Amino acid sequence: MPSPQSAAARILGERVKDARTAKGLSQEDAAALAEMHVTNFGKIERGQANPSLTTIVRIAGVLEIDPGTLVRGIKLGDLPPRSHQLTATDLIKARKAQAG
Questions:
Q1: Domain tally for the chain?
Q2: pLDDT tens across 24-70, in order?
Q3: 81 vs 10: CA distance, rounded Å
Q4: DSSP assignment of 72-88, as one string?
């Protein structure tokens, strides 16, 4: 079985699965309600997919939860590594220092 894409994908997937099972829905039923293929829904639950914002909101809607609960607390460090670790604040500081 493939591993999760990232800690963020794993966390999101666990939250989707928890919300689905709390409602007593099968993956098939939840996927049908969200108008998506059950295979894709399963990949999201296993953290093997990176769903779009539209998909996250659609899933949250059919599970009757706030979409924010699915992503709350997920941080930049939970994503795959980037080629740099700069934030907007770092960039602004560097530009001010160069303008000096």
A1: 1
A2: 999 999 999 999 999 999 999 999 999 999 999 999 999 999 999 99
A3: 15
A4: TT--GGGSPP-S----H
> Coil, strand or helix: which one is 70?
helix
- pLDDT at residue number 35: 97
In a domain, 1, yes or no: no
State the DSSP code for 69. Answer: H
Q: Can you give the residue range of the structural domain that contains 95?
A: 7-99
Is 88 a residue whose pLDDT tops 80? yes
Longest dimension (CA), the chain: 61
CA–CA gap between residue 39 and residue 43 (Å, rounded): 6
CA angle, 82 then 11 then 28, to 5°: 120
Q: Which of 2-6, 11-15, 80-84, 89-93 has the lowest mean pLDDT?
A: 2-6
CA torsion through residues 93, 94, 95, 96, sign: positive
What is the CATH number for 45? 1.10.260.40
